[in-house]
Predict the structure.
Amino acid sequence: MSEADILASTYDDLCTVYRPTKDVLPSGETVFRTSLEGRIVHKDIPCALAKHSGGKIQRSPSTAVTPTEYSVFTRPEIDIQAGDTLEIVQLGKTVIAIAGRAERHRSHNNVPVELRGDTV
């Protein structure tokens, strides 16, 4: 059993990866499809959504926000590119995220993500 196999055995979440794509309609019109309308490049792959930090309060004169950084861990052969939309199912709840540039290792990929919303 390889290190990638051992790490993958801990992935309890599922992820579908959508990649932005450009289509040409029969009328000749060009349509750019993004987010969940993009092309599915991976469906229901095992992954692990992990909170990277508890967040730091950022204040402005009128608001205070606490952004939290997240990462998605996948097997090393899974190609997730910056700008891909991820639909992640964790503990029965679906979250939508946008991928950043993946940090690639022989044993796994660590993909920073920005959460865009929850769905049920």
